[in-house]
Design brief:
This protein has about 1000 residues and is mainly beta. About 10% of the residues lie in helices and about 50% in strands. It is built from eleven helices and 50 strands.
């Protein structure tokens, strides 16, 4: 009986244990988006029960279930479609969620981690890969143009290999380096070192809340670039190729008829009361030779359009191949690019070769690692003359239409006509001879290791190397120009050397980075979500350079150093820089509606003295997701409504090295009793008190979504106060011939607002998207130790580098008007000359004289408005997209040899023909025609030559067709798309100079219009 009782008890215990096991089985898994990216903070709950958990920093979750065979899990994430999943006994899941309307559930790359967009409390702009795909972008910086609010992208040059745009985030806040910090896959890098086709996303951190985690150098904003990575599946091959034709957006329209040029020059001299330079006999002889023709008439009596001969349509070809795939544990991607781009300057060319290798592998459930390797090689060839191809615009402007190409015997020609310049330079010699070649290599490699020792705790260690080296050869040839009529030697073309010379240079640099973070994510009492991050960062940068020089080469074709024979010179130097940082971030969310974030970073920079080396950069931000409040549940107007605000302090240490200690310059030469002796001298003043330039940023933002987030609007107000700006201080000459010290010199304020709106709608089978962004920024100097005054001024209350010139009020029409008006005393003023405003007397009253004291603020080179718009539509396989970009309220100075007539012997543009003041043409827009170097005040620096450089540019138009899959599969391809693309096809502006975008950026190499056709396939 006792044994029977024991048996029954044991049986009951076994049944109870089995039932208990069935009731408490644990289900684990991962939640991702449809691209495989883990979703952090996704909600997982048992349907019909109160059990609920959230996914951790890796998207992983664990939940207990009583009935694994019948229970249903409900997965939800802001911005994604809710999904229900029946377990049916499964206990290890990978669940992917499909995005809903809007982007609130989007996972965003932030400093040292990711966040879902709905939880962001900072001002962030995100550009996805689809904005870059199939556009003929040769530098990744161009991808941001017009696509992100608060970001001003200025591409001032189209030169191959040097066509990267300058990027300014929410204006220019400093007097020195205002470039944003660029982080590529976790390492400091440059946008030029990334193949645009490899980019998965670009995140722009604009305010302190988003950027403070990078405290050092983050004052100018931060750009985070994440490159593409492999996805699970069989190997997939993606190949794109495109071919394009390029031409300048604008070139000077020069007078190309030689006789017309000579007559215009004589007219200018007549207006100055001088005799003609080109005699009637010369003009008649030229006209006769032209009319008679003959086999060499076009060589001896040319009417050359040098811009048409030196600047030409150019070819471009870009090819990209990507191979990706992997298993559940390991994914890989390998990418290759070859870009061959000619420049529009004759014989200008650049070739780029790049490769990207990415490997991500999970060793165990708690351990994963990855390796990134990005390689780039760049060959660039350009003109050797006067600074390279970027200076050819000015040089060609100095080539007159009667300059010949070649003599009848094949030598470089000048002209038999007397010309203004004694030096006659043949443009063909400038671009066909000599050597100016650069070779550049970069390598960015990194490896990371992630360990999750405890649930919710993640430890990351990342180490990386950025290595770059460059080689340059500049060979200055010996070239002569000959008279095409007589064959006599006329002049030598060169950079001032009387002999052939070669400069050979080499440099290399290496940046090593090591950082480690601990991230802890946990949900308390269901409603309290906390993510805490602690980190350490160490960087070191080393650079070396070497240069050698030789003269005395025997020919123009033998260009190696050993071929030189005289005057050898050699120089070299090295430098180093380091920074050490400690940082942390705390995020707290209550019920996904009340959001708080704090960032702290402590940076130590070797650019400052030890007692001033460390800078502390905190930020605090808060967000209120009003849409989650109970009073918003029954309304049908808003699908998203969030208010956020931030405050923080960021830093900038971008100055030269060793400015806080005395540095000595070797190789100085002294004369002691007529004996030349080498020595050492201090050539720069030091300042041991320099320290961090700091930026205090405030931001208030409102995010709204309507119609299930089909329409989203984001508005921000921001205010930045920069203080302790690092700048060289002007010093008096009586201190000696020393370079000035760097000091914490000035303060600058930027404040403004930005608005971003996007609309997505499907109308039947037509998918339509539209976006618009606008930014308004007011910039002013709030403090400067001593005003810096020139044609541009830095002084209290004015924009940085405001134009400081005499203000023009019109053109004098009569002698009486001249007699009764203030005017310069340096030259005679007559009707047809420019009239100026006189303000130099007491309290701004006229004193009757126009001089430098009458200068005033007349404009600014920084735009107040920047804006962009994008439109796209697709129907079945056909798609069309348009991107527009522009700036407003900005001026640019057009004076110089590209606009002034006969500037130091240069040519004249056609806008002067028939548009100059004469007694019979008093309504002309330009003053009377005079030589630039004539005794006149018309060409003084004044607002007359300052023009409105605002513009609206159609940046890109693309039309494509995706071949139906049933057809592509017949040729064994998964995907085929063909497209036609136009870059910079139209520009709308009142600017009368050349390209307004180039003018604002200060470059002379024109931007380019590019027409490209291409095809993309997957197999």
């Amino acid at each position: 009986m006792i044994k029977l009782r024991q048996t029954l008890i044991l049986l009951c215990l076994l049944l109870y244990t089995a039932n208990l096991y069935a009731q408490k089985q644990t289900v684990t898994g991962m939640v991702t988006d449809n691209g495989g990216t883990p979703l952090v903070g996704a909600t997982i709950e048992l349907k019909g029960k109160k059990s609920l958990v959230t996914s951790d920093a890796n998207g992983k979750f664990s939940i207990a279930t009583n009935n694994p065979s019948t229970d249903v899990l409900v997965f939800s994430y802001v911005g994604f479609q809710k999904r229900e999943f029946s377990l049916n006994g499964q206990n290890n899941l990978t669940i992917s969620l499909q995005p809903g309307n809007g982007n609130m559930g989007e996972v965003v790359i932030v400093g040292y981690g990711t966040q879902k967009r709905a939880d962001l409390t900072g001002a962030v702009s995100i550009i996805k890969a689809d904005v870059l795909d199939d556009r003929p972008i040769t530098d990744a910086s161009q991808a941001l143009s017009g696509t992100a609010s608060g970001v001003w992208v200025n591409q001032s040059s189209g030169q191959p290999g040097s066509d990267g745009a300058s990027i300014r985030i929410r204006g220019i806040g400093t007097l020195g380096n205002s470039a944003a910090l660029v982080i590529v896959d976790g390492l400091i890098s440059a946008m030029a070192d990334v193949n645009p086709s490899d980019i998965a996303s670009i995140t722009v951190l604009k305010d302190a809340a988003s950027a403070a985690i990078y405290g050092s150098r983050a004052a100018n904003g931060v750009i985070l670039i994440e490159t593409k990575k492999g996805k699970k599946g069989v190997p997939q091959f993606d190949f794109t190729t495109s071919f394009g034709s390029q031409r300048a957006t604008d070139l000077p329209q020069q007078v190309t008829n030689s006789i017309q040029f000579m007559n215009l020059y004589n007219q200018a001299l007549a207006n100055q009361g001088k005799p003609a330079f080109f005699t009637p006999a010369t003009i008649s002889q030229y006209q006769t030779g032209e009319n008679q023709g003959g086999p060499n008439a076009n060589l001896i009596y040319p009417n050359n359009d040098w811009f048409g001969m030196i600047f030409k349509p150019a070819y471009m070809n870009d090819n990209n191949l990507k191979i990706s795939g992997g298993t559940d544990a390991t994914q890989y991607l390998v990418s290759f690019e070859y870009l061959d781009q000619d420049g529009i300057v004759k014989n200008d060319n650049s070739k780029r070769y790049s490769a990207l290798v990415k490997l991500n592998s999970r060793i165990t459930k708690a351990v994963d690692f990855g390796v990134n390797l990005n390689l780039l090689h760049w060959d660039q060839n350009q003109s050797w003359y006067n600074g390279g191809s970027n200076g050819m615009l000015s040089e060609v402007m100095r080539a007159l239409p009667m300059y010949g190409t070649y003599t009848p015997t094949g030598q470089y020609a000048g002209t038999w006509v007397n010309v203004i310049n004694a030096q006659v330079n043949n443009p063909y010699a400038m671009v066909d001879e000599g050597l100016n070649e650069g070779l550049y290599n970069t390598m960015q490699g990194s490896a990371f290791f992630n360990v999750e020792p405890l649930k919710g705790l993640k430890w990351n260690v990342t180490g990386g190397i950025n290595y770059g080296d460059g080689q340059g050869q500049l060979f200055d040839p010996l070239i002569y120009v000959f008279n095409p009529l007589t064959g006599a030697q006329q002049s030598q073309v060169g950079n001032g050397s009387v002999t052939r010379s070669l400069t050979d240079s080499y440099s290399n640099n290496m940046r090593t980075t090591l950082y480690s973070t601990l991230t802890y994510t946990r949900t308390f009492a269901r409603d309290h979500n906390i993510t805490a991050l602690l980190g350490y960062n160490q960087e070191q940068y080393n650079q070396r350079s070497f240069q050698s020089y030789y003269e005395g080469f025997q020919t123009n074709t033998l260009t190696e150093l050993n071929a030189g024979s005289i005057n050898p010179q050699v120089s070299g130097t090295a430098s180093a820089y380091a920074i050490r940082s400690y940082f942390g971030r705390l995020n707290y969310a209550f019920k996904d509606k009340y959001l708080l974030e704090a960032n702290l970073r402590d940076d130590g920079s070797s650019r400052f003295a030890p007692d001033r080396r460390w800078g502390f950069f905190p930020s605090f931000s808060a967000g209120w997701r009003i849409i989650e409040e109970s009073f918003m549940k029954d309304q049908n107007i808003f699908s998203n409504l969030k208010l956020r605000a931030s405050w923080g302090r960021l830093g900038n240490d971008q100055i030269g090295l060793y400015g806080y200690i005395p540095t000595l310059n070797l190789g100085r030469i002294y004369d002691f009793n007529s004996q030349i002796t080498g020595g050492i001298a201090q050539t720069a003043l030091d300042n041991p008190n320099i320290t961090w330039e700091t930026s205090t940023k405030k931001d208030v933002g409102l995010e709204m979504g309507f119609f299930q987030n089909s329409l989203s609007i984001e508005a921000d107000y921001f205010n930045e106060q920069r203080s302790g700006i690092l700048q060289s201080l002007n010093i008096p000459y009586d201190i000696g011939n020393l370079s000035p010290p760097t000091v914490n010199l000035a303060g600058v304020n930027n404040q403004g607002w930005e608005l971003n709106a996007n609309y997505t709608q499907n109308i039947g089978q037509v998918k339509f998207k539209a976006g618009f962004n606008v930014t308004h920024v007011r910039n002013k100097v709030t403090y400067v130790l001593t005003p810096q005054i020139g044609n541009n001024v830095i002084e209290d209350g004015q924009p940085i580098n405001a134009f400081y010139m005499v203000k023009a009020t019109g053109i004098f029409q009569t002698q009486q008007q001249v007699n009764n008006s203030p005017k310069p005393t340096t030259n005679t003023t007559v009707p047809g000359d420019i009239q100026y405003q006189d303000i130099s007397g007491p309290n701004g009253t006229p004193d009757g004289i126009i001089d430098a004291n009458d200068r005033q603020i007349v404009g600014k080179p920084i735009p107040t408005w920047t804006y962009g718009a994008n439109l796209s539509a697709s129907y079945r396989g056909v798609d069309v997209s348009v991107l527009v970009q522009g700036v407003g309220d900005v001026q640019s100075y057009v004076g110089g040899n590209l606009y002034f007539p006969f500037f130091n012997g240069a040519g004249i543009t056609t806008n002067w023909v028939g548009n100059t003041w004469t007694p019979a043409n008093t309504n002309a827009p330009l003053p009377r025609l005079l030589q630039y170097n004539a005794p006149t005040n018309n060409y003084m620096t004044s607002s007359f030559w300052l023009q409105n450089a605002s513009y609206t540019r159609v940046k890109n138009i693309q039309a494509g067709y995706t071949v139906p899959q049933r057809i592509s599969e017949k040729v064994k391809l998964k995907y085929i798309r063909i497209y036609l693309d136009a870059q910079n096809p139209f520009t709308f502006t009142r600017f009368k100079g050349l390209d307004p975008e180039s003018a604002v950026g200060g470059s002379q190499y024109p931007n380019m219009k590019v027409i490209t056709g291409g095809v993309a396939v997957k197999f």
